[in-house]
Amino acid sequence: MTVIDIEAVQDWLGRLPGGSLAEQYADGWAAFATLDRPVVTIFGSYDTGKSSLLRRVLVDSGSQVPDWLTISARHETFEVNEVVTAGYTIRDTPGFVVGASDARGQNNSQRAMAAVGLTDIGIAVLTPQLATAERDLLQTVVAEGWPQGSLWFVISRFDEAGVDPEYDLDEYRELSARKVKELREVFELSTEVPVFVVAQDPFETAGPGTDIDRGEWDAYRDWDGMRDLNASLDSISLTPATALRDAAGSRYWGGVLADVLDELRGQLVEYRSSAEVAATGVARRDGWEDELDALDRAARANLDGLLIEVARQSDPGLDTGYLQGEIPRQVEQWFTKYEGRLERLKQSIGKAVSRERARPSWEGFASLIASVGTEPDAIVNEPREQIAPHVEQIGKMLIGVLKAADGQRSQQAKALTAKAASGAKAAGGLNRHIGIAEAALPLAVHIAQWVDDSSADRVTQGSGQPAPTRDLRQLVDSCTAHVAAVWQPFVDDVRDVIDSETADQVALHDSLRRLVEQLQDSIEEGESLNSLGSVSVREG
């Protein structure tokens, strides 16, 4: 049997990403460890006869059948209930509901598995058909490391197996032996694992009643199998309690380790996917910004070159009409060309974003963003169930990590989104025609004023020579600055689109990357604890 280093597991649980589960699991164990009687837990799928088996055990031992015990073919047991009898405590559990999609079915299975984790002796109950849908679940339970004599199997309701023992007892016993052999083969059970074949209520003699006299089943005791099972239960009080409890401790903490590791692995898959989405957003933002910057630089360089060429080709006599007509015309062509490139870049961004958000990975990331954006859950001091699972807390703990790391950055992301929305609204006025008009039309007036000023300067200076090159350079610089001022909002509009479409991904990128690393480290450490092999059991 693999023995778990309990102190090491508790230390690991105390250092999980986002918080600690050590105290919650320690509280559950402490409540169980202080029980002064051995605990026996009956478990299995619903409608395997667990409740009717418990009723028969109680009646045979002379114990009172509690009011909560119901006998039905339907799924009737929804809580873990217990009865103290004959020197031990025996529990009835909800039936496993394998593959349940409803909350109640999933909760029942969790409660049953938690009860099996905190018990000294487990009794798996199956019908004569043996395990079907629940086979994998039972195999998981078998593999949890039960010391000799602490895991039992009961094949119940065997009067329904197809052979009537009152007509052919030999065939009934032969079928019973075959089923025991089959069961041992299915779960690879050694001969040391007790297997009982019982008919706890032969031919439904007692029906659903609970007020039953022990003599009700006297006619069937020679073949119903309950004599051997009752004798084994009666001997439990003779087993040293410390041996059972120590073994239960090792199995409990080993189960905790396995459950938390499974949950961490599942969380890692989800967070790794979200981290990849965030990294894609950062890469796209950088790529789009580089493309926008290159386009902007090319546009400005081209504009300056165009205007220099127009000025250079102007008539030496400074033909005002040529400058006033050619510069606006060149600016209009330039603006049409490069504003079109901006628009194509914006459309490309929109298509890429639409494709990304149609992928399954985006749905998980969007859900994460929504979770991070919600207000922290209020702390409610509710009593915990003694054997309730705690792995569902891990998801909340990890969300808490992201909330703590990205509170400010999430606000920045929201601000960018709001800015882009208002920018998109304003961009209704930043259309191509208005942009051209704002860039080109005022230039004619601007150029005329510049020509008048230059002519006046030359008259004042008594010179009729053409404007010097430096004056033309001033004209080019002045026109370029005017057009650039009109151009800049169009560039800013595209930049706002880039920022807003990648804001959430950029905001969470660093913290998601760190969280994935923390999860990987925690899983590796937990797996190393699971592979340490046999060490002394030490309780913290």
Task: Provide a descriptive summary of the structure in words.
This protein has helices at residues 6-13, 22-33, 50-61, 103-117, 135-142, 169-187, 226-234, 241-313, 320-357, 360-373, 392-426, 432-460, 469-530, and strands spanning 39-43, 81-85, 88-92, 121-126, 151-155, 195-197. With 540 residues, the protein is mainly alpha-helical. The chain has a six-stranded mixed beta sheet, sandwiched between helices. The longest helix has 73 residues, at 241-313. The relative contact order is 0.13.
Which residues form runs of ≥5 with pLDDT under 50?
Answer: 377-388, 423-430, 533-540
User: How many whole angstroms does the radius of gyration measure?
Assistant: 40 Å
**Number of helical segments with 4 or more residues:** 13
For the termini, the CA-CA separation is 21 Å
In percent, how much strand structure appears in the residues?
5-15%
Q: What average pLDDT do the residues reach?
A: 81
Biggest sheet overview: 6 strands, mixed
The dominant shape is: rod-shaped
Order of helices and strands: HHEHEEHEHEHEHHHHHHH
Name the strands of the widest sheet in spatial order.
2-3-1-4-5-6
Helical fraction: 55-70%
Number of strands: 6
The SS-based structural class is mainly alpha
Question: Helices, strands, pairings?
Answer:
Blueprint: H1 6-13, H2 22-33, E1 39-43, H3 50-61, E2 81-85, E3 88-92, H4 103-117, E4 121-126, H5 135-142, E5 151-155, H6 169-187, E6 195-197, H7 226-234, H8 241-313, H9 320-357, H10 360-373, H11 392-426, H12 432-460, H13 469-530
Parallel strand pairs: 1-3, 1-4, 4-5, 5-6
Antiparallel strand pairs: 2-3
Helix pairs in contact: 1-8, 8-9, 8-10, 8-13, 9-12, 9-13, 10-11, 11-13, 12-13
